[in-house]
Design goal:
Elements: E1 2-4, E2 10-13, E3 16-17, H1 23-34, E4 40-41, H2 42-49, H3 58-75, E5 83-86, E6 89-92, H4 100-113, H5 117-128, H6 142-168, H7 172-185, H8 190-202, H9 206-224, H10 230-240, H11 260-266, E7 276-277, H12 290-300, E8 310-314, H13 321-332, E9 339-344, H14 355-365, H15 377-388, E10 394-400, H16 403-406, E11 417-422, E12 432-436, H17 442-453, H18 455-460, H19 462-472, H20 476-488, H21 494-502, H22 504-510, H23 515-526, H24 531-541, E13 548-549, H25 553-557, H26 563-571, E14 576-580, E15 586-589, H27 592-602, H28 607-630, H29 651-657, H30 661-667, H31 669-681, H32 685-694, H33 696-702, H34 705-722, H35 725-741, H36 745-762, H37 765-781, H38 785-801, H39 805-821, H40 825-841, H41 845-861, H42 865-881, H43 885-901, H44 905-921, H45 925-941, H46 945-961
Parallel strand pairs: 7-9, 8-11, 8-12, 9-10, 10-11
Antiparallel strand pairs: 1-2, 2-3, 4-6, 5-6, 13-15, 14-15
């Protein structure tokens, strides 16, 4: 059984041609073969069979044609399972040796895997033998003509790649004839001409090589009005000069490409363990821009005389700045082995990104987390520059608005470079080179249009294509809009579109430049959509510039499930499916300009309808946040629910989303902060504070202090403006705990004192107890033990009175710690035992681990090192299972202290170094210093005074950063609050 589409359509079974009853069966077979082993949708089969408007009986006729095709195949001996009926369409099942297209693709894949050029060339040659002529040359279908054009382009690309490799292998004599024929077929292809020139030159046919160049130069000048590009001009000069480097190369004996990692190692350059690779996907149909690309490449080339550390690509909307920079950055990525950072500054959006937040994002990408990220803009910029000083990295800043937004993000290191896109000149940037990007050249515009619409379609109506491009003004955005219309309407001739946009009175409605062009495109699409889809798009626009999960459409429309509406919007290319996140959710985004148009459409809706829709979405976010928090390790920062509404999603949906609660929070980090901001902007203060406070357990678990503070500050302004005392007390308490983590005790005292006062005024006993307990932590850390005991006791009295067993368990443990610090060991043991009993009764494994960690101190004080270590090992196992790095660090610190007390330096030092690493990652400078101080003390005791000075000096520098130089001489205090 053998089928073929790489040439005239072929179907043979047992050596005999299969009879096809007319062109309809041929079209159906061709459509199935082009997508062999994949579902071919009924809609596509209908489009294949009818170039024009399909009749009402189209589906039935397609089914009849497929039934007849199956009968004819079975009559020749084909199995009944060859073509299967699946939901929504049909699928043909073939192996690689049964279809020439599959064999061609397999040989291409093999060529990519081969390690030597000769093996690669052989595989490419085998792939080319699968072809019998132009693909599907005997099938008349406009839809299939697009597939045939794509396949023919793959054949040409494969042929050129094969000839290029064989030229490098010294087979110049054998390939001249093929290159000559290929040159006649592609008279504008400079790569083919270049290979032919080299091959002729190596055969000592210098004159003919020069004739090839002259013929190319005249063809380009006469037909396109352009000159050959600089690379082939340079080759022409080298042939004139008889450059000996153009001679026959020495055949390589191994792989022709050295991996970047191997090269870096061989050269002795440092290789980052985890280089940052953030560049967006390249634009697959990128065309032209040779001059701009060459200029960017020169500016990024470290060895070039005209190198500039900062290059700014400037141009109007829609000219393709981001596409150019992404393409150029990917081409240059090998020159920056330490990675590429990509930051979207969103200057043209409603919410330009703040440089301080962008620096925090960059620092997180560079493995700096938690409060290790400084709070001030200048400090963040300084740390960012320090991290990049010895690295070779490329930084791409997309959509910059002004120099002030960009300047803090410039690395300032010799090995780094920056690519920026902007609509305005950034002349205030020192040393920056500007590249002005205009619309496409005529030949580039035609190449872009042809690549999207299809070569055969354009060649049938070349004058119409030129007229369309003229109406588009060669603006890439307008060309893409026009091309998308034609691609989505295969039955249209080019003349139909040309007539629609030729009349200037109608052109602005069909194709508008810049922002208006997108508005016209959206309005055209909206007229073809159901009313509910239009409503969904308009409401999606109100949610802001975020990548969203698909479930949000349901609450927007007040429906339990709206996937069909979302699918309609995706099919209409108004909503883009961007990725699938780590928990398996597809994520969607509106292009910023489409979102702007959607907001304009939403202006026509009643204000109450818009407000209700936003409240429903936020209420669903709040419900998911609460459920997700319930699945995390228990935390006492969770506030009692306020009066904000909660909207449960369907149970199956919620269970699927929250199967991994921490993973869900990870996926929704940005959208949760966006939800807080949306609530603030809409005056929904109750929803704002509950959303901000609802994520605190997650932020605490992951040590995401920047997100924690950002959400709380946003909501705090809103509740204060609304006079919402309950929300203010909760947010101040959360900020107070954040201050404690950052060793900012004055700020913590102020926030927590205010929170406690607001709670007392409102009769919020539990809130008052929590704030009082946190104030006790501040007292304890600052050495005011009696005050701390008093505050713990007051909080404990409230917890007992309110029957809050979780809080009682925490406070019992806190009281045990205080009695331990006061050397009242028997009382401490009693309190620890009570706290452990309460935690176990609550089945709170995290709280049990915390109590065990602190209980170990008592065992150690009494000389029972084995029991202390048993408690710590059990606690560490729990914290590692829960991925709680901060509590794991505190436990490792205690392990190190126990071993140090037993003079076991070999076991103490690894535990302390690991703890110091974790504390450093999360910005806990005080406990990191304690680790290095203890290591230094052990070094000194062992007589290694040089190492002791180094480690103690490191601890001292850390204490100096928090203004506590006396800590080196202070007795050790229990770890963690």
């Amino acid at each position: 059984m053998r089928f073929g589409v790489l040439g005239p359509l072929r179907a043979q079974i047992t050596g005999e041609e299969v009879r096809l009853d007319g062109p309809r069966q041929a079209k159906m077979l061709a459509a199935l073969l082009v997508d062999a082993n994949n579902l071919v949708a009924m809609e596509r089969l209908v489009a294949v069979m009818w170039d024009g408007k399909a009749p009402a009986t189209a589906v039935r006729q397609v089914q009849d044609a497929l039934s007849g095709l199956r009968r004819n195949l079975a009559a020749c001996g084909a199995p009944g399972t060859l073509i299967s009926t699946r939901r929504g369409g049909y699928e043909i099942h073939l192996t690689t040796d049964q279809l020439d297209l599959l064999e061609f693709e397999e040989q291409r894949r093999l060529a990519e895997r081969h390690k030597t050029p000769s093996e690669t060339a052989a595989a490419l040659r085998r792939s080319l033998t699968c072809w019998r002529g132009d693909a599907l040359v005997d099938i008349s279908s406009r839809v299939l003509e697009l597939d045939a054009a794509r396949l023919n382009e793959m054949r040409a690309a494969t042929h050129k790649l094969c000839l290029s490799i064989e030229l490098d292998l010294g087979r110049h004599r054998e390939i001249i004839e093929e290159l000559t024929a290929l040159g006649r077929e592609h008279p504008y292809d400079e790569q083919v001409a270049e290979h032919l020139m080299v091959a002729l030159y190596r055969c000592r046919r210098q004159g003919e090589a020069l004739q090839v160049y002259e013929r190319l130069r005249r063809t380009l000048a006469d037909d396109l009005g352009v000159d050959p590009t600089p690379p082939i001009q340079e080759l022409h000069l080298r042939i004139l000069a008889a450059d000996p480097a153009l001679g026959v190369p020495v055949p390589p004996s191994g792989p022709s490409v050295v991996r970047q990692e191997e090269s870096a190692t061989a050269d002795g350059e440092p290789v980052m363990a985890m280089p940052v690779r953030q560049l967006p996907l390249d634009v697959t149909d990128f065309v032209g821009r040779a001059d701009a690309l060459a200029e960017v490449a020169g500016l990024l080339d470290g060895s070039a005389a005209n190198r500039a550390p900062v290059a700014v690509v400037v141009g109007g909307p829609g000219v393709g700045k981001s596409s150019l920079v992404t393409h150029a950055a990917r081409l240059a990525s090998a020159n920056f082995p330490d990675g590429q950072l990509y930051l979207n500054l969103a200057a043209t959006s409603d919410e330009p990104r703040d440089p301080a937040l962008m620096l925090a994002e960059a620092l997180r990408a560079l493995s700096i987390a938690g409060s290790a990220i400084p709070s001030g803009l200048s400090e963040r910029a300084a740390l960012y520059r320090s991290l990049l000083v010895d690295r070779r990295m490329l930084v791409v800043l997309d959509d910059a608005g002004h120099a002030g937004q960009v300047q803090p993000l410039l690395p300032g290191a010799d090995g780094c470079a920056v690519l920026i896109t902007s609509r305005t000149l950034l002349t205030q940037l020192p040393g920056a080179r500007h590249i002005d990007l205009d619309v496409l050249r005529p030949e580039e515009a035609r190449e872009l249009f042809t690549g999207i619409v299809g070569r055969q379609r354009v060649e049938r109506e070349p004058a119409e294509a030129d007229a369309i491009l003229d109406c588009c003004g060669n603006l890439p955005l307008a060309i893409r809009i026009a091309s998308a219309k034609l691609t989505g309407r295969p039955a249209w001739s080019l003349r139909v579109l040309r007539e629609r946009i030729e009349d200037e009175s109608q052109r602005l409605a069909e194709l508008r430049i810049g922002d208006l062009s997108v508005r016209a495109s959206v309005e055209l699409s909206l007229r073809l959509l159901p009313d509910e889809a239009v409503r969904a798009l308009s409401l999606l626009g109100l949610l802001g510039p975020y990548t969203l999960p698909g479930w949000v459409v349901g609450p927007l429309l007040d429906r339990p499930d709206a996937e069909d509406v979302l699918d309609t919007l995706v099919d209409a290319s108004l909503v883009r499916l961007t990725t699938t996140d780590a928990i398996g959710q597809p994520r969607y985004r509106l292009h910023d300009l489409i979102r702007t148009c959607a907001v304009e459409v939403a202006d026509r809706l009643p204000e109450q309808d818009k407000r209700d829709a936003i409240v429903r979405v936020l209420a669903a976010w709040l419900d998911l946040t609460g459920r997700g928090t319930d699945g995390l390790p228990a935390g006492l920062l969770v506030a009692e629910p306020g009066s904000a509404p909660r909207l449960p999603l369907p149970e199956a949906v919620a269970d699927r989303l929250l199967a991994d609660p921490a993973g869900w929070f990870d996926a929704e980090r940005a959208t949760l902060l966006g939800a807080v901001k949306l609530a603030v902007d809409r005056g929904l203060d109750e929803l704002a504070w509950e959303l901000a406070a609802g994520a605190v357990t997650y932020y605490d678990h992951r040590c995401l202090y920047q997100d924690w503070e950002h959400g709380h500050r946003l909501a705090l302004d809103a509740v204060r403006a609304a006079g919402n005392a309950r929300g203010e007390s909760v947010l101040l308490r959360g900020l107070g705990q954040l201050h404690i983590y950052r060793d900012e005790f004055d700020g913590a005292t102020s926030a927590l004192t205010s929170s406690a006062g607001l709670c007392r005024d409102a009769g919020d006993k539990r809130g008052e107890a929590l704030s009082m307990a946190m104030l006790a932590t501040v007292s304890r850390v600052q050495g005011r033990y009696e005050e701390a005991v008093d505050r713990v006791q007051r909080a404990l009295d409230i917890a007992v009175g309110e029957n809050d067993r979780h809080l009682e368990a925490q406070l019992s443990c806190s009281m045990a710690v205080m009695r331990l610090m006061q050397d009242r060991l028997d009382e401490a043991e009693s309190w620890f035992g009570e706290a452990l009993r309460q935690a176990k009764a609550l089945d709170d494994v995290h709280r049990v681990a915390v109590v065990l960690r602190r209980f170990s101190r008592l065992h150690d004080r009494r000389g029972d090192q084995d029991e202390a270590l048993r408690c710590l090992r059990q606690a560490l196992t729990t914290f590692e299972e829960l991925a709680d790095e901060r509590c794991a660090a505190y436990t490792l610190l205690e392990v190190g202290r126990v071993y140090a007390g037993g003079h076991d330096r070999e076991r103490a030092s690894p535990a302390l170094e690991r703890a110091a690493e974790l504390f450093h990652r999360h910005g806990d400078r005080e406990d990191e210093a304690a680790c290095w101080q203890l290591i230094g003390d052990m070094d000194a005791a062992a007589g290694d005074h040089d190492l002791a000075r180094r480690h103690r000096g490191r601890a001292l520098r850390l204490w100096q950063t928090i203004g506590d130089t006396s800590a080196a001489n202070a007795p050790a205090r229990p770890s963690s609050p």
